[in-house]
Design a protein that fits this description.
With about 575 residues, this protein is an alpha/beta fold. The chain is built from 23 helices and 21 strands. The protein has a 15-stranded mixed sheet with strand order 1-2-3-5-7-9-12-14-17-16-15-18-19-20-21, with helices on both faces. Strands 4-6 form a two-stranded parallel sheet. The protein has a two-stranded parallel ribbon with strand order 8-10. The longest helix has 23 residues.
């Protein structure tokens, strides 16, 4: 056996000679004891050395903040990793219920979910359920456990799933009549947006809406059918802190009467954000009784979708001294549409808003959009009239006339400085003869006008006739838009001739007008000479009922933007508004 093992002639490290002699004369058992002692000494020395590291000197609360920042929502993998770094970190993780609350994931298997839920101890829970993330099939049973045994300590509850699942969860799992910590409740029924799956709304039982929630600040219900009387009598009176209310229905059958809705809002003095879609409709009671005014002193954002009649009645019943944002989507395809009354409601609702210097009016895809904001920031006033189909020319249609007059009467728009308009002539032809003159006389601060793909030629004609009359009379300046200094228009030769005539006429009354063009159109074949176009334009100005405006009909007559750039223009506008 000699030579099997190589014994070094000298120690590889410098050690005490007495220790080396002890090792040299020791037997195997004694050497094992020495090795165990050395290992313990190394561990102790390493721990002592690690105590000088910056991370080891962090206070416990700071360490917890770092862990919380590093921990993704609903993910326990990071917690496991952190707990395996050192003894202190493991102890910190295991004794931090807030970390386990953040890691709580309904999709985890039931045994592990119960373990994590237990480690949250008694801290308020933030529960998030999304059927799209339930890749294991455990989410619904785990959520049922939470609702049955821990609903009393939920601070936030978000449920997003199919109507049947929502009904099962909220109908059979609640075992308490109090949720004193609940601040945010959100239920989104995705079934209504998928007709092939299920076209009904989730029924929310009265018992669920009757749970005592004194701390509730945010309530969002989408695709849910519920008893509005329960909301009026039980939920609203006991949620004085509610500041955000979103109710989105996909079927008007679930809507409240205006009287019911106002009764709910009257019980919510701290409401700041209100969003309603197909959530209210005018009833026979609303027609027979005049609703009393409801003061919402803190409401800053109001977004709703309704008919014109219901929207008018709703806005007329509100006092909104702090309103900063109003967005409405109005269905004008109904025979009873009354845009005049609706715009009167807009005028009343926005009477205390700050003046808005930017105003845009567009038509396309059967949508007519009125949009105004402040310094190109978030949308402050936006009204979308959907289903705006062009009616038979033989049938009287005063909708656009009422809209233009209504816009002019809205006080926050009367200091508009920047106006952009894109309207086909088929819309403009429905205007009363004096409608544009009334509009321009009220919005007299406009200094810049930009025309979109479809230029409102009757608006231009109104400005031109005004300048000509001013030049013929004793006035020294134009009556309409005395501050107008620049017009931007698409690169259309016939339109350029019309604008040049306007610029010459205003120049003669001492108000110079700068004209610039934007090339966003596809090239066209050369038209008649400018002199010929000018004569035709002058004939049209003199009598637009007899003469037609020159140029390709796709630029001037197109209703829906089917053969022009209007589709791109309206899509760009809608995309920009949705991103705000």
């Amino acid at each position: 056996m000699e030579g099997l093992y190589h014994i070094p002639a000298s120690s590889p490290v410098t050690l005490n000679e007495e220790f080396l002699w002890t090792v040299a004369v020791a037997d195997a058992e004694e050497i094992d004891q020495m090795l165990e002692t050395l290992r313990s000494a190394i561990v102790y020395a390493s721990q002592w050395r690690n105590s000088f590291a910056p991370a080891a000197r962090l206070q416990g609360d700071i360490l917890l903040l770092i862990f919380e920042h590093a921990l993704p929502d609903r993910d326990t993998c990071m917690l496991r990793t952190l707990s395996q770094v050192c003894r202190r970190w493991r102890s910190t993780v295991l004794q931090a219920p807030l970390l386990w609350r953040k890691a709580l994931n309904l999709a985890d298997r039931t045994t592990w979910f119960s373990e994590v839920l237990g480690r949250t101890q008694t801290v308020p829970l933030e529960v998030f359920f999304d059927i799209a993330e339930d890749y294991t099939g455990y989410a619904i049973p785990n959520l049922a456990t939470v609702m049955m045994d821990h609903f009393w300590r939920c601070a936030s509850l978000h449920i997003e799933g199919y109507g049947d699942d929502i009904e099962e969860i909220v109908s059979s799992c609640i075992t308490t009549d109090k949720a004193p910590l609940l601040r945010r409740l959100s239920i989104h029924n995705i079934s209504c947006s998928i007709p092939s799956v299920h076209d009904g709304e989730a029924e929310i039982p009265d018992a669920f809406l009757s749970v005592f929630t004194p701390q509730l600040m945010s309530l969002h219900l989408e695709g849910c059918a519920f008893n509005w009387d329960i909301v009026c009598t039980r939920l609203a009176p006991h949620t004085p802190l509610l500041s955000s209310l979103h109710i989105c229905n996909f079927h008007i059958q679930s809507a409240a009467s205006i009287a019911q809705l106002l009764s709910v809002l009257e019980s919510l003095p701290r409401l700041k954000d209100l969003r309603l879609q197909n959530s209210f409709a005018s009833s026979e009671t609303d027609w027979n009784t005049r609703p009393h005014k409801v003061l919402l002193s803190q409401l800053t954002s109001l977004v709703f979708e309704s008919s014109a009649v219901a929207g008018a009645m709703f806005l007329a019943a509100l006092e909104l001294p702090s309103l900063a944002k109003l967005e409405a989507t109005i269905d004008v395809g109904q025979p009873s549409t009354d845009i005049r009354k609706f715009m009167e409601g807009v005028r009343l609702a926005t009477c205390r808003m700050a003046h808005l210097p930017y105003l845009y009016i567009y038509y396309g895809h059967r949508l007519l959009i009125l949009h105004s904001n402040h310094h190109h920031c978030f949308s402050a006033l936006r009204v979308t009239f959907k289903n705006w189909a062009l009616r038979d020319p033989a049938v009287s249609d005063t909708r656009f006339t009422n809209l233009i007059r209504g816009i002019a009467d809205v006080a926050v728009l009367q200091k508009t400085q920047d106006l952009k308009v894109s309207l086909p002539i088929s819309i403009e032809r429905r205007l009363a003869a004096d409608a544009w003159a009334y509009f321009l006389s009220r919005l007299k601060k406009i200094s810049f006008i930009s025309f979109g793909t479809h230029c409102p030629v009757f608006l231009i004609r109104t400005l031109l006739l005004d300048a000509c009359h001013s030049n013929e009379g004793t006035q020294v300046q134009s009556r309409l838009l005395p501050s107008l200094t620049q017009i931007t228009l698409p690169s259309i030769p016939e339109l350029k001739v019309l604008i040049d005539i306007l610029a010459d006429a205003r120049g003669q009354v001492g108000i110079p007008l700068a004209v610039s063009t934007i090339s966003r159109m596809r090239p066209r074949h050369a038209g008649p000479p400018v002199e010929v176009v000018r004569e035709i334009v002058l004939d049209w100005i003199a009598d637009p009922m007899v003469h037609s405006i020159p140029g390709d009909s796709t630029w001037f007559v197109d209703d829906e933007g089917t053969d022009s750039d209007e589709a791109d223009e309206i899509d760009e506008l809608l995309d920009g508004l949705d991103n705000e």
